[in-house]
Automatic annotation (TrEMBL):
It catalyses: adenylyl-molybdopterin + molybdate = Mo-molybdopterin + AMP + H(+). The keyword Magnesium applies. SMART domains: MoCF_biosynth (SM00852). It comes from Amycolatopsis carbonis. Gene3D superfamilies: MoaB/Mog-like domain, MoeA, C-terminal, domain IV, Molybdopterin biosynthesis moea protein, domain 2, Molybdopterin biosynthesis moea protein, domain 3. One of its GO terms (molecular function) is metal ion binding. GO terms for biological process: Mo-molybdopterin cofactor biosynthetic process. Belongs to the MoeA family. Keywords: Magnesium, Metal-binding, Molybdenum, Molybdenum cofactor biosynthesis, Transferase. Residues 169-305 form the MoaB/Mog domain. Signal peptide: none annotated. It is an enzyme of class 2 (transferase). This is Molybdopterin molybdenumtransferase.
């Protein structure tokens, strides 16, 4: 039975749990999901310091300059006395007794004395004013971005506890599929093998290997059996023709088929199954645009969940032109974005990736849709 588009995606997410946690140096954690919260190991700022290059001043001015302190230099020993000032660099520790920091461009110099106007407390960053020690800065499941790495380093972390990335094997089937050069009559260039690594990377997964098989059940059985990836993606062989062996092979392997077809165009023959040992199999239709649509429908949510990532918030946009709705199925339509609007690009037959290659996203057009906002699946 074909599942509805949203239902199929929910089943894919619910089919798995996040993979185990690994502790990695910051430099290796980018793109993974946090397996535990990031807490501040130190307060921020860690000590009272100057927000400006200028003078730390004590009491009312004018002030006699009694020394200088640079960021990274030795802090000023002792308490700054009333009527004195310390030349200070941005980020350098302010001594006890500091009333404020007078920015250098506001200071009037007269020999060893400076004067100027500055409100009490101005330009001093107090210890812990951004967050106290122990504060939970980022929750579990946050995807590690460049900014997350910087924030984690700033509060003292050298490593992060993150989920292991899903390993994905790819099996491209088809007697007619060739991997290089101009396709001869009766042959077709593999368009799915080259498309998948980008999709896997965008989902935070890693490609574990790619094999190409003729349309032959024993070879497919062996490929699904002799494999230690978390997910096997089989391209082609999802339909009902004499060369389409995936369903029969899954039955023989006693797989639990969770999704057997999705009410979506293109991509309706896609499927999701769980093998007895817990590994998942995702079947992508052979038509390349259908394979892309199915990759975004079932494979992406599955990998997002396995990697421990939060479900991304839906992105919506206004359809500036009518999008072709189907009476009973969801349609995935390549669109370009401009401001808050989307416009279809056409060239979107199931066998053609031209439209998708021109597009920024696939618009999710619900059955019977009559205009308005649509959800977008960004194209990686
Ligand atoms: N009787 C029915 N026939 C078909 C149905 C159906 O419901 N009933 N569905 C059609 C739809 S929709 C799709 S999509 C395809 C799915 O077929 P398969 O997943 O079994 O894939 P193949 O039959 O092997 O190939 C379909 C098509 O795609 C070309 N192909 C295959 N692999 C690649 C590749 N790696 N790169 C580029 N092109 C590829 C292949 O040559 C065929 O033209 O079934 C329909 N039929
Ligand atoms: O739906 Mo097929 O999956 O149209 O190409």
């Amino acid at each position: 039975m074909h599942r509805g588009w949203a239902e199929a995606r929910r089943i894919a997410r619910d089919a798995v749990k996040p993979l185990e946690a690994v502790e990695l140096p910051l430099g290796e954690a980018l793109g993974r999901a946090l397996a535990s919260p990031v807490r501040a190991l130190v307060p921020m700022p860690a000590y009272d310091n100057s927000a400006m290059d200028g003078y730390a001043v004590a009491g009312p001015g004018p002030w006699t300059v009694v020394g200088a302190v640079r960021a990274g230099g030795a802090p000023y020993a002792g308490v700054l006395a009333h009527g004195t000032a310390l030349e200070i660099a941005t980020g350098a520790p302010v001594p006890a007794g500091t009333r404020a920091v007078l920015p250098v461009e506001h200071a009037v110099h007269s020999g060893r004395r400076v004067s100027g106007t500055v409100a009490s407390g101005k330009h001093v960053r107090r210890r812990g004013e951004d967050w106290p020690e122990g504060a939970e800065l980022l929750t579990t499941s946050t995807t590690v971005t460049a900014a997350v790495l910087g924030a984690a380093a700033a509060v003292g972390h050298d490593t992060l506890l993150v989920h292991r990335r899903p390993r994905v094997s790819v099996v491209v089937t088809g007697d007619e599929v060739q991997t290089s050069g101009l396709p001869r009559p009766g042959r077709v260039r593999d368009a799915i093998g080259p498309l998948l690594p980008g999709l896997l990377r965008a989902a935070g997964a890693e490609e574990h290997g790619l094999v190409r098989l003729a349309d032959q059940p024993d070879a497919l059985t062996a490929a699904l059996t002799d494999d230690d990836a978390d997910v096997v993606v089989v391209c082609g062989a999802t339909s009902k023709g004499p060369a389409d062996h995936l369903r029969g092979v899954l039955r023989a392997l006693l797989a639990d088929v969770r999704v057997d077809g999705v009410a979506v165009r293109p991509g309706h023959p896609q499927l999701l199954a769980v093998l007895p040992d817990g590994r998942c199999v995702v079947g992508l239709p052979g038509n390349p645009f259908a394979a892309l649509g199915a990759g975004l429908t079932l494979l992406m949510p599955l990998l997002t969940e396995l990697g421990g990532h939060r479900e991304p918030a839906p992105v919506t946009a206004w359809a500036a032109e009518p999008l072709p709705a189907h009476p009973s199925d969801t349609r995935l339509v390549p669109v370009v974005r401009s401001g808050g609007d989307v416009t279809p690009v056409g060239h979107d037959r199931p066998g053609s990736l031209w439209g998708a290659a021109l597009a920024d996203a696939l618009a999710v057009v619900p059955p019977g849709w009559r205009g308005g906002d649509v959800e977008l699946l960004p194209l990686p």
